[in-house]
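Amino Acid Chain and Its Fold in Token Form
===========================================
Purpose: to set a sequence beside its fold so the mapping can be learned.
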Amino acid sequence: MRARPLTLVQDELVDYDQAMERMTDLVGRRQRDERPDTLWLLSHPSVYTIGRRTPITHLPDPTRGIPVLETGRGGQLTYHGPGQLVGYLIVKLDEGEGIVDYVREVELRLVEALGKLGLAAERRDTPPGSELLTGVWTTETGRKIISIGMRQSRGVTSHGFALNVDGDLTPWDWAIACGMPDVDMTSLKRELGSAAMDEVRAAVATAFEAG
């Protein structure tokens, strides 16, 4: 994996709609070469986000009280909430490099970060004839710990990943996550017994050469 240093931006809890506005601005500035490649680390209040092809049967019961927002990224339904680390990647791709190529790099960097935190993890190949499989799973328990959904526009990526650190996992059970009815979502706290958000942020930033 070649060197690809990023500029690091960090925030705490940011409303999803506000984050999308800022991300759109960052993407436009990167397309105009007005800023460098960027990793933005943050968290969101509780919200479900869905891709354009997410079946209505995958959505949660509205009585749960968690908003559902359509987003422009690839992938299916995912959940964001406190205790989850979200990383938005605004990166100009190389000539001949596609979004799938970069997603695979993102997966490998996140596997590296989890390894430094003491959790063995892996990415998975897409089964023949299936929709693109993205994310990171724990090696020992086979649970999914990171969701990934990205897109590119005029050669610049947007959206990114969501790593479950120490938040409540219950909302994942109220919907069909990632288009996979049998997926078992997990967190660093569930797998390791404890997790410190500051430590996770630092490990992820290091894995992405972000500073």
Observations:
- The mean pLDDT is 94.
